[in-house]
Amino acid sequence: MRRLAVLMLISLWAGVAVRAAEDPRTLTIGITQYPYTLHPNIDSMAAKSYVLMMTMRPFTEFDAEWKLRCYLCTTLPTFENGLAVRVPNADGGDGVALTFTIQPDATWGDGTPVSTDDVLFTWEVGRHPLSGVASAELYRRIERIEVLDGKRFVLYLSKLTFQYNLLNDFRLLPAHLERPVFEADPATYRNRTLYDTDPTNPGLYFGPYRITEVVEGGYVVLERNPTWYGDRPYFDRIVVKIIENTAALEANLLAGAIDMIDGGLGMSLDQALAFEKRHGDRFVVRFQPGLVYEHIELMLDNPLLADRRVRQALLYSLDRELLVQQLFAGRQPVAHSNVHPLDPMYAEDVPRYRYDPERAAALFREAGFAPGPDGILVDPEGRRMELVLMTTAGNRTRELVQQVLQGMWRKAGVAVTIRNEPARIFFGETVTRRRFPAMAMFAWISSPESVPRSTLHCEEIPSAENGWSGQNFTGYCNPEMDRLLDAIEVELDRERRRELWAELQRLYATDLPVLPLYFRANPHIWPRWLKGVVPAGHQAPTTMGVEYWRRDP
């Protein structure tokens, strides 16, 4: 049965490739992950953002110059233009009222106008304790919404933050379609949303493209959306093909089955460097450094990892400088905290864990571990230092990194078992529901000066009680970290904010709720006839500008 399924999938891919080859207005893209869900606000996954950004637009987002701008709105609210106003919040502190106007011609694919009714419904879903949205804290922060008319509304936020007019994660849902599904049972809504049960419904999308065909685990087909209010896209049809194995991804590119490979979901750096040497005459290979943080999440509920000294010893046991030199030719810098050197809030003076096996051994001893008969560390209760390291199956780079880390830790007396899963299972179930037993390796992609509240605050630990909302998958909870996160958000003075950011990075690098590895430089690969692709180097995928992509022989 498994062989038959694979053959059927290859046949489907072949059919898509033939149709694409016959039509120069079709673009076929290769990525390595299939989205666990297509719902805009449930779960955080790069593959989903990549696909959905062709079908919608956020109210605000950072552009390729890292400047915040309006996309679905007409004018970015600021204090200077009067669309942002300080208001008292319920506690007597400072809140802010933001007046937004939705693009007048924005229309869902079934002809229904995008309206303030959608705004109210999206807020209702986001603030429900069981809806399972990834950015629940944003919706809780909205105290009320005042509707001015069908396209204008005032958002009252309980906190006046330094990013007071940022509304990147408020992704609109079509109230006329999703409301009946949600109201039937909010607790199971995430499993019944039309984005997964009826993903080709045109009324779910208002961007330059809409999804017209889906083969789970295989590909997603998008076609031009006739109700799109912006510039008319060049390509009539875009096929996003999922090829989880990076070697197979390269083979498909060379065979012409795909036209391009996305940087965040494609080849490894070493693979792309070798590819550029062999095929640089046929393809553009762009190495884009950016805010992509490769790291290992630690399950802090695991008693072997609960002691901070153990986490520090694990990091001292790794020669990360050697890893990035040998695997990435030094093109991907070692990460010392969760903030990239390109970010304006980056701090130099944080604890650094250079390879130091003697220091690692001392910390393990302090934590009560001693080598057993086979060299593996054992604690006084007889528990062996045996850890499971998980990541996305088929990603050649991550699997190679796993093997290197496994060998380094074995020398330190740590037995690591590698167990990987397809991305849609790994992110959709194992990570999101905190089911990884010890270590989960993946990347966070962030925006400039993005406050990591959802990944570090005590209130953001996913659980069944909160519908698996939040992204603090490690279970990290430190009141001092909460204080810093809360203070940074409301600090309007840039220099004082920089000081708080430095404190946060020092605490993060001391507590080590995760093990920092390196910051990625993503290799984007496209044919020389494709123009208009602009990687941003942050959270927004290149598909934010898909309507400007074109063929130019």
Structural class: alpha+beta
* CATH homologous superfamily designation of the largest domain: Dipeptide-binding Protein, Domain 3
The appropriate CATH architecture of the largest domain is Roll
Overall mean confidence score, pLDDT: 91
Specify the overall morphology.
globular
Percent strand equals 15-25%
Number of domains: 3
> What is the count of helical runs?
17
How much is the radius of gyration in Å? 24 Å
Structure description:
The two termini are 43 Å apart. The strands form 6 sheets. Strands 8-9-10-1-11 form a 5-stranded mixed β-sheet, covered by helices on one side. The chain is 31% helix and 20% strand. 48% of the residues are buried. It contains 17 helices and 20 strands.
In summary, what is this structure?
The chain is an alpha+beta fold and 553 residues long. The chain has 17 helices and 20 strands. It has a five-stranded mixed beta sheet with strand order 8-9-10-1-11, with helices on one face. A five-stranded mixed beta sheet has the order 16-15-17-12-18.
